[in-house]
Amino acid sequence: MTAMIELVQDGNVTSAKGFSAGATYAGIKTAGDEDSLDLGILLSDVSSNVAATFTTNRVVSPSVVLSKQRVQNGMARAVVANSGCANCSVGEQGLRDAEEMTALAARHVGVNSDDMLVCSTGVIGVELPMALVRQNIGNIHLTEEGGPQFARAIMTTDTRAKEMAISLDLDGHKITVGASAKGVGMIHPNMATMLCIVSTDASVDQKFLQVRCLIP
Length: 216
Fold this sequence. Notes:
Blueprint: E1 5-7, E2 19-24, E3 39-49, H1 62-70, E4 75-85, H2 92-109, E5 116-123, H3 130-136, H4 147-153, E6 162-170, E7 173-182, E8 195-200, H5 206-214
Parallel strand pairs: 4-5
Antiparallel strand pairs: 1-6, 2-3, 3-4, 6-7, 7-8
């Protein structure tokens, strides 16, 4: 019997149980309006299975390099993301900045820095303004209703936030899958600077997750 999938009204990346998020304006990107956000964190209440797919472009951000290393463990607790600066084409400093930003975010939410992934999107060839990150990351207040703020914090050329969630009954249990994404035409070439973060409260084997991530 096929499970009935339902769209969650106003669903987002924190619609799944056990997730919280928040964001702030740190000044990394030019403020567009009073509601501008550019630095956010998504947190799982517990250590969770994680899987990922990454761009195959030859030029990648050190933030991608660091996250790619850490997902090899198959587990994670959180992701810190910024817009306004891609942390790309900036040499070795980019990796040091990505490591520091994950350490700052991990300390703020009380997890191990190795369990924190990082996403950066925006202008290339410019170093992350770490003084602004250090000054403002403590302003992020995580809540179960913080998904929309996280979605807005990763926007660059997007005209609106991209987020949704679905739910279904599976073997008598209701599960939810939520997501936040950014990018305008950025799935080509090779995902470019597209970001998409998916959460779920379903119990899913890590190897199964990774296989599904790699299916074109």
